[in-house]
Design goal:
The protein has nine helices and three strands, in the order H-H-H-H-H-H-H-E-E-H-E-H. It has about 250 residues and is mainly alpha-helical. The radius of gyration is 21 Å and the shape is flat. This is E3 SUMO-protein ligase NSE2.
Length: about 250
């Protein structure tokens, strides 16, 4: 099983080792590498969530031992992400202070960062881990997908849907407004609730930023004139729905 194999433990160990080692290097290199680590963790959390949806689809349950293990893994990812946030905040804060102090203050920067990091980390609670956006999304996606799977197996299409599922199904189709083809990795804009294919929208945002312009949501009538990458979140439930629809319709 994916959730119990050695690769996941190796991933956690590698990230922890990287966090410790990077705190000893130059400030800018440290921050750059920490952000790269966070991106890796975010991708890993998406993989864990997708595996969870696969288990719901295959087993029809959200309470299996495998699901429990996946939830433990995504909480561990949340903890790692929190540690990196604490370390980045420590580096930013202490280097800003050091710029206004005598040069010899830089010699103690490492110890100062470590002390501040430990202090910030001690304030991170279990509730903070539970509030991580991808942990919240993990649980919500599992709930939604389990409900959809249950309704599909019962064959009762006229049964009243959960309100948020109904909104998703009635307002969202599978076509990206940018490419005009079916989405592969659908992302939802948290500001205006419109969907785009991930690769297409990130390309457009990057292109607009290169030309120092803002990217407007392409949906007709939308007033969102400044779409940012931070506004976007991968919708794994919709992605799996698109994949299932392809299989059922025999599309390549």
């Amino acid at each position: 099983c994916f959730c119990g194999n050695k690769s996941s433990h190796h991933f956690f160990s590698r990230v922890r080792w990287s966090v410790r080692e990077m705190s000893l290097g130059s400030v800018q290199s440290t921050l750059s590498n920490l952000k790269s680590c966070q991106a890796d963790i975010g991708e890993y959390m998406d993989i864990v969530s997708d595996v969870a949806l696969g288990i719901v689809e295959a087993q029809g349950t959200t309470t299996s031992p495998a699901m429990k293990k996946l939830e433990e893994m995504i909480l561990e990812c949340s903890r790692l992400d929190g540690e990196i946030n604490c370390l980045m905040e420590s580096v930013d804060e202490l280097t800003a202070q050091a710029r206004h102090e005598p040069p010899e203050a830089m010699a103690n920067l490492q110890n100062s960062v470590q002390e501040r990091f430990t202090e910030l980390l001690s304030g991170v609670s279990q509730a903070d881990l539970e509030r991580h956006s991808k942990v919240v999304a993990f649980r919500e996606n599992v709930r939604k997908y389990a409900m959809q799977a249950s309704q599909a197996s019962a064959g009762n299409e006229e049964e009243e849907l959960d309100e948020d599922i109904a909104v998703t199904q009635s307002q969202t189709n599978f076509i990206c407004p940018l490419t005009q083809v079916e989405m592969v990795n659908p992302v939802r804009n948290k500001k205006c609730n419109h969907y785009y294919d991930q690769e297409a929208v990130l390309g457009m945002i990057k292109n607009k930023q290169k030309n120092k312009k803002k990217f407007r949501c392409p949906k007709v009538g939308c007033g969102n004139t400044d779409v940012q990458q931070s506004d976007l979140e991968l919708d794994l439930v919709l992605k799996r729905t698109i994949q299932n629809n392809k299989r059922q319709s025999g599309k390549p």
